[in-house]
Structure formats: structure tokens, C-alpha cells
UniProtKB/TrEMBL annotation:
Pfam families assigned to the protein according to its UniProt record, in alphabetical order: TIR
Keyword Protein transport among UniProt keywords: no
A GO molecular function held by the record: hydrolase activity
Upper taxonomic lineage: Eukaryota, Metazoa, Chordata, Craniata, Vertebrata
Species whose genome carries this gene: Scomber scombrus
GO biological process: signal transduction
Bilayer-crossing regions: 347-376
Residues forming coiled coils: none
Span of the signal peptide: 1-23
Keyword Nuclease: no
Superkingdom in the source lineage: Eukaryota
Entries under SMART domains matching the protein: IG, TIR
Name by which UniProt lists this protein: Interleukin-1 receptor type 1
Ig-like domain location: 39-132, 237-323
Entry keywords, A to Z: Disulfide bond, Glycoprotein, Hydrolase, Immunoglobulin domain, Membrane, NAD, Receptor, Signal, Transmembrane, Transmembrane helix
Length: 571
């Protein structure tokens, strides 16, 4: 025991009027707590020190000056049920070097209040510290962490706390880093950098300084939690478009004011309503609610103010409403209009009128579809493509039965009306058996050749087949032309099997009770697919080339008549 401390102990003993003390036979440096502190010593601010069991830590009070003075200027002791004085012997687990209190391999029993009595120039100060030693399992508790690192930087810097850094600097220690208490190899600096940080990099980062004292290695550690904040991009408030609303008088309505304040910027982003130039105040029947959210995953920060009007009155339609948005970067407003909802009767009437007009136009277009097609067909290049065909239609016909009137109608149609309209008026070229046959040419070869040179197969149907009834000489006739004859077979073969020709069916007179049952199956199939065009014999305008009948025939004929060739070429 040094002389200065012995002198101090003697002074304590002889001051019985102020202190009551007795010696402990086991430890001559243990004293009962004085009734009060040294009257001439001033208590400085109490500091706190949190340590983990098994670690070492040299402590110096932040307000203590000249802590490196000789030991006799400092008296350290622990305040407990007994005053336990701290020795300056470096072999002790807890000792002091002047004003520095050194803990080596601390245990939970070392927790408590420690006081340093500092005497200099007749002045006495008490520097106090509360030491809390936690079990090692407590290492992840927030109470012993040295704060948090929270920012939105892309590259994160995690510095080792100054308390541990100063130990390593003084004792030439070595740093080791851990993340979530797992070692990070290759990191031995006083800080650690994390580049392009992500959520996976969040956690508790611990720096451990391993240093040597009296040829023994000790550890001092400190931990910090890293938290990644999402990047933010605040800006001027932007009023989202929603500038008017319709409402019914007497009904409830909600007016919505939405303000966009940037990305991930919920602070100081606020939407609100102004009515008649003044900030809205809740009154009976009127209520405003404000909510600010950051949407996921876009991270857009939007503040919404909803003005609820429980019963809309006539005066509410004349008020001036403004949606106001405010953020750190400015304030903006936009007018809002509350309109009376119009009756739906005009809408219903308008909808019915539009529907009727559409139906009328559809019927009109359908009725005049052929007229429109004939009108515009010459202007479409695809409908005017050239080919090597010499005839626009090869006409096959069914010689009528013995009915005199039917025969006359057939002759009139075949010899006058059909050529007059399609050839003279429309410029088409027709090949009609009995009229266009070339004397001396082989009949079968003639049919095959002319059929290949024709674009359409025009079939003239009459009420029945000829069965022995004579036909006037002026009518075109050919034994090949009877139903089921060679030209019929060749024509149907080209139309059905080879798909080389389109078929135009024209019906003269009534079909009779038999209908079309007497016709070949191929022709019956064509009739089922496309009904024949009936010749309106009784109509006064039937023979006119602009009549409805001839328009339908012309619609089925080629758009452009076949090129006229010399007779020699045809032969």
C-alpha cells in the first residue's frame, strides 16, 4: 500500500464525526459505504459503459482532464454494499493506470457503479461510470449495439466505433470483422466498405480488436446494425388529374384530391381541400380525411384528401373547390368543379336514335350492297387483273319442255335479252351453243376448248328438260346442251372438281312440282350453295340493263370484260 493511500485511510479513520467505518478482517482495503460523499468533491456527469462477458476494455471518463497523471492523483473504487478500492497493480483483472480504469476478462459480477476521485491543486472531482456486463448470448440485443447505420447510399461504409478503434491504435491491435457473428475474411481495417449494397447486406456488423497486455491477448468488440433505406426522389407536388365530378342533389358524394410528391418521399407530402379560398374545416355534414402512402413496387408517394359531403345541396354546386398539394419543395393547387348530374333521358333517346340509325344504315348498305360493289369495283386494281381468257361466260342451258309459253320466253331471253344486255350494254363476251358454234369443228373438242377459255359458267335453268318437243329454229340448241350432256359435264367438272370457274345460276319460270330433282347431283349441290337468280319475266323493267336482276348478274360476272380478239384468234 503506497503512503498517499495510507494517509487517506488514516484521515478517514480519525474523521469519526463525519464517517462511521470498521475494518474487514479479510480485506484491509474494503470499507463500509460512507454516509455521504467527500464534501469538497464535485460529482461530474454519470457515464455508462456496456460490455460483453470475457472481453477487455480500458475506460477513461470523457470529461476527465490529465488522466495520464501519476496514480497518486486518482483513487478508483467500486460502489457496492462495500466500497471496493481498485488497485493500480497490472496483474489485477480490474486495475487502473492513472485516470484510466482497465477491465480484463470482465464477468457479469463486475457490473455496478465505479467512481474515480481526482485530486489536483486542492480541487476534488468525482468521475462516475455505470458498468453493465452482459452475458455473451446478449450480443445481438439492441441495448449493447453502438447505434444504427441508416441511409440510402449505394456504397455503404461501416466504421468501427471510436472506443474500439482507440484501443487498437494504442496497443497496436488487429481488427477482425464479423457479419451476424460470422467472420468476414480479408477485412482487417478500422472500417469496412460494402459496394452495391442490397437487402442481403443488412445485419449486425461487429469489429473485434485483438490486443496484447502483459504478453496476454485480449479482445474488445463493438457492433453496429446496418439498415438499407430505399432511395428517395422528392420533388414538387403534382396534382393528379381529376378536375371535376358529377353528383345528385341530396345524395352523398366524395371529392378526391390526389397529390404526387416523388419517389419514396412520405415526409411533408400532404394533400388538402380549400373551399371558397380558405382551408377546409370539418363541420356538420362535411368531413375531410387525409392519407399519405408509398405504393409498391413503384415507390410513388401519393397523398390523398377525400372531402365527404353527406347531402349535396344546391349551394354546394356553386362553391369554389381547390385541390392543394404541399411538399418540402413547394405548393401547388388546381381548381375542382362539382357539377349537377344530368338526367339520363337525353342519353337514352340519343342511344335509341343511334341504334335505329345504325340499323337503318345496315339495312341500307345491305340492300344497296350490289350497287355499291358495282360502283366501286372498277377502281380496285385486284378486280381488274388480266388473264388469257377470251370469254366472260360459257352459257349452258336447259331446253324447256313442251310448254309453248315457256319456249317463247326461253327463245326471247336467249336470243335477244341476254346478248343485248351483257354483250351490247356491258361489253361482255358470251359463248352460247347453237349460236357461236363453228361449222365443221369437232363438237367435243369445241366444248372442251371454249370451256377452258371462259371465266364463268352460266347455267340457264327452265321448268323441265326437253323430251321430244320441237324448238323454233331461232333458238340456240345442241344435243350436247341437254341436261346431263357433255357440255354440262365438262362445265360442272371445271366448277366443282378443278375449281377453275365460278357458276352463275339463272332460273327462267317456275321449277314446277319436281323442283330441281331432275338435275345432275353436282348441279343440285351448286343450287343448294347458291340459289339461282330468278328472271322476273312479268316485270316491265326486267329487260333493262340497270334493273335489279341484271345488277345481280353483273355482280357475279368478271369486273372487267375479256379482251376482244379477232375472229382468227378465236378460230
Amino acid at each position: 500500500m503506497d503512503s498517499s493511500r495510507l494517509l487517506f485511510f488514516i484521515l478517514l479513520v480519525i474523521s469519526g464525526s463525519e464517517y462511521s467505518a470498521r475494518a474487514d478482517p479479510d480485506d484491509d482495503l474494503t470499507w463500509i459505504i460512507p454516509d455521504r460523499a467527500e464534501p469538497n468533491c464535485e460529482d461530474e456527469e454519470l457515464e455508462s459503459l456496456d460490455l460483453l462477458e470475457g472481453e477487455a476494455f480500458p475506460f477513461v471518463h470523457t470529461e476527465m482532464p490529465d488522466w495520464k497523471l501519476p496514480d497518486e492523483h486518482f483513487l478508483w473504487y467500486k460502489n457496492s454494499s462495500k466500497i471496493e478500492y481498485i488497485s493500480s497493480d497490472e496483474k489485477e483483472r480490474i486495475h487502473h493506470h492513472g485516470g484510466a480504469l482497465v477491465f480484463l476478462n470482465v464477468s457479469t459480477e463486475d457490473s455496478g457503479f465505479y467512481t474515480c476521485q481526482y485530486n489536483r491543486s486542492g480541487q476534488c472531482d468525482n468521475y462516475r461510470v455505470e458498468v453493465n456486463v452482459f452475458d455473451a448470448s446478449y450480443k445481438s440485443n439492441e441495448d449493447i449495439l453502438w447505434g444504427k447505420i441508416e441511409n440510402s447510399d449505394v456504397n455503404k461504409k461501416v466504421p468501427c466505433p471510436d472506443s474500439v478503434t482507440s484501443i487498437c491504435d494504442k496497443f497496436n491491435g488487429k481488427f477482425t470483422w464479423y457479419k451476424d457473428f460470422n467472420i468476414l475474411k480479408g477485412h482487417h481495417e478500422d472500417n469496412i466498405w460494402i459496394y452495391d449494397a442490397s437487402k442481403d447486406d443488412e445485419g449486425i456488423y461487429t469489429c473485434i480488436c485483438t490486443w496484447e497486455h502483459n504478453h496476454i491477448l485480449y479482445n474488445s468488440s463493438a457492433s453496429r446494425r446496418l439498415i438499407l433505406l430505399e432511395s428517395s426522389s422528392p420533388g414538387e407536388p403534382e396534382i393528379l388529374p381529376n378536375r371535376e365530378q358529377f353528383a345528385d342533389k341530396g345524395a352523398e358524394t366524395k371529392l378526391t384530391c390526389s397529390v404526387f410528391c416523388g419517389t419514396n418521399a412520405p415526409k411533408d407530402c400532404k394533400a388538402s381541400w380549400h373551399v371558397n379560398g380558405k382551408p377546409f374545416v370539418n363541420t356538420k355534414g362535411y368531413n375531410q380525411t387525409i392519407k399519405t402512402i408509398t405504393e409498391n413496387p413503384s415507390k410513388k408517394t401519393i397523398s390523398t384528401a377525400i372531402l365527404t359531403i353527406e347531402r349535396v345541396s344546391a349551394g354546394d354546386f356553386s362553391k369554389e373547390y381547390k385541390c392543394v398539394g404541399q411538399s418540402l419543395y413547394g405548393k401547388k393547387s388546381a381548381p375542382f368543379t362539382l357539377k349537377r348530374r344530368a338526367t339520363i333521358v337525353p342519353l337514352v333517346i340519343g342511344g335509341l336514335c343511334a341504334l335505329l340509325l345504325s340499323v337503318f344504315l345496315a339495312m341500307l348498305v345491305k340492300y344497296f350492297a350490289i350497287d355499291l360493289a358495282l360502283l366501286f369495283r372498277p377502281y380496285f386494281p385486284l378486280s381488274r387483273q388480266k388473264d388469257a381468257k377470251l370469254f366472260d361466260a360459257y352459257v349452258v342451258y336447259q331446253t324447256p319442255s313442251g310448254d309453248k309459253a315457256a319456249e317463247d320466253t326461253f327463245c326471247q331471253f336467249m336470243t335477244k335479252i341476254l346478248p343485248s344486255v351483257l354483250e351490247e350494254k356491258c361489253g361482255y363476251r358470251l359463248f352460247i351453243h347453237g349460236r357461236d358454234d363453228i361449222p365443221g369443228e369437232d363438237r367435243l373438242e369445241l366444248v372442251e376448248d371454249r370451256m377452258k377459255l371462259s371465266r364463268r359458267l352460266m347455267v340457264i335453268l327452265t321448268p323441265g328438260s326437253k323430251s321430244g318437243t320441237e324448238v323454233p329454229d331461232i333458238c340456240p340448241t345442241s344435243p350436247l346442251n341437254s341436261v346431263g350432256g357433255f357440255d354440262w359435264q365438262v362445265g360442272l367438272h371445271h366448277a366443282l372438281m378443278q375449281a377453275e370457274m365460278n357458276v352463275i345460276l339463272i332460273q327462267l319460270g317456275d321449277t314446277g312440282p319436281e323442283g330441281y330433282t331432275h338435275l345432275p347431283p353436282g348441279l343440285q349441290h351448286l343450287i343448294r350453295c347458291s340459289a339461282p337468280i330468278r328472271w322476273p319475266e312479268s316485270s316491265s323493267s326486267a329487260a333493262m340493263w340497270k334493273s335489279r336482276f341484271w345488277k345481280r348478274v353483273r355482280y357475279l360476272m368478271p369486273a372487267k370484260p375479256a379482251s376482244k380478239s379477232t375472229q382468227s384468234l378465236i378460230i
